Amino acid sequence: MAKKRFNDHPFSYHQEIELEISTLTNLGVGLGRVEIEAKTPAAVGNSEAASNPREGGWVVMCAFALPGERVRARVFRNHKNYSEADLVSVLRASPHRVTAPCPLFGRCGGCQYQNFEYEQQLAWKRQHVEELLRHIAGVSFPVAPVIGSPRQYGYRSKITPHFNHPKPLSEEEARSPAAAKLEFDERHFPIGFLRQANRFELVDVPRCPIATEPINEKLTSVREQTRQRAAEGAYARGATLLLRDAIGGVTTDYDAVITEQVGQLKLHFLARDFFQNNPFILPAFTAYVREQAVASGARMLVDAYCGSGLFALTAAPAFEQVAGVEISATSVNFARENAKANGIANAIFQAGDASAIFAGLTLPADDTVVVIDPPRKGCDENFLSQLFQYGPRAVVYVSCDPATQMRDLISFQKSGYELTAVQPFDLFPQTRHLECVISLRKKTSAA
Questions:
Q1: How far apart, in Å, are the Cα atoms of 88 and each of 65, 115, 328?
Q2: CA–CA gap between residue 163 and residue 166 (Å, rounded)
Q3: In this structure, which topology does domain 135-151+263-442 adopt according to CATH?
Q4: What is the end-to-end Cα distance of the chain in Å, rounded?
Q5: CATH topology of domain 16-97
Q6: Residues with catalytic annotation?
Q7: Is pTM beyond 0.90 here?
């Protein structure tokens, strides 16, 4: 397949420009505008039209540049309405710029904010939620200050480094006596994460500062073993590794049963299963969800994406009856075992069918609050239709992607629910990601 031709409007490939960074996008990228000369068919032969800059200036996205900075950037892609550029140098630094502790920051695509003071990270994340509320859901609503993580580094309890086939050796390297060893060195066989702004190339990551210390200690031996096995021909293609830190130590086995403690609860689940990856903020996070559910006045609670029971079991003492629904039968079994192991007798769990999620629930909807924590893509129409048909008194919606959450908020509003609280949590310091909890209640007929 022929390589796609570079679009050279408005900048040539790797053209360097200077710009002022005015804001951050919700992807954690600096945004600035520069004036350019319009190049449209109508402007051909018309010097006056050709000299008019695009209204407001042409948008340029520059990763790792911070608001208030003046930077030099190198353009690598022009889109229809904006350009993307790499940061070359900071000409005038933000007073909130700090030195990133990771030597791979700027190359590894895992973190966006290691160069940004933590309090400013929280302030911008709050602003992003406010903007998404307005621009997607059309709602102006006060967003509470972001609740920060107790740990800003060394918090992540799960990482999944990747590796691909070794890169080809040069002719000179192939002739070297050390060719066999070179093939699996860090340059030709990186084990790590995707390079910034690249969907295919990996950056070799021998240590990750946002991961827990036990994971980093284990990572050294895992990398050595992986290189050795690769040299022995153990892998027909690239693969993803797992390192998960929990009670009992770090496991690399996807099928291992592990234990995580949240407050007084001990929860068991498979290492490969979804579970929040910042255990240090989970007590405050789950307590807030419980408090919002209680504030609805409902006596019953349904956890509609219950997994191994995190929200259902942490909320159970505050309700007469709790029911968890989960499509994964394996997760339902763990949730039941977790309830029994923690002495919780008022929680039941059932495996739900995608076409009949709430079937079999006997809890009265007008006295029930539903907690939902869907995947990053948000709720699908089928789920929302069933939820609205059930018609609970209130909903506490937990999301790792506020953009899809605000999209779903439109459906809630159309179905008679009103927003009562918006609370972001920073489960992912140094990155653009965050969790957001919105609370909704069903409007009464009198309202």
A1: 10, 15, 47
A2: 8
A3: Rossmann fold (3.40.50)
A4: 61
A5: OB fold (Dihydrolipoamide Acetyltransferase, E2P) (2.40.50)
A6: 400, 435
A7: yes
